[in-house]
Amino acid sequence: MLRPVYTEPDKCRRCYKCIRECPVKAIQVDHDRISIMPDRCIWCGRCTEVCPTGAKKLRDGLTRARMTVAKYPSAILALDPAYISEFDNVTPEVLVAAIRRLGFGGVSETALSARLVTGRIRRFLEEARPGAYYTSTCPVVVNYIRKYRPERLADLIPVVSPMIAHARLLKQLYGDDLRIIYAGPCIGAKYDADKHSDLISVAITFQDLRQWFDRAGIDLQTVTSGPDDRFVPRQADSGSLYAAEGGLLAELGALTGTTGHMAFSGLAAVKATLSDSRLHPDRPLLIELNACKGGCINGPGCSHRTTPAANRYTLFSRRTARPTPEPDHKPDLEATFHADPQPEESFTEQRIRETLASIGKYAPEDELDCGSCGYGTCRDFARALLEGRARNNMCIAFMRRMAHDKATVLLRTIPVGIVIVNSNLRIADMNRAFAAAIGGETLAAYELFPGMEGVPLQEICAFEPYFKTVIATGEELKERRIRGNDRTWLLSIYNINPKKQVLGVLQNLHEPSVRKEWLIEKTREVLGNHMTTVQKIAGLLGENAAYTDATLRSIIEAYDRGVEEIPTKHPSEE
Question: What's the CA angle centered on 489, arms 485 and 491, to 5 degrees?
Answer without folding.
Answer: 135
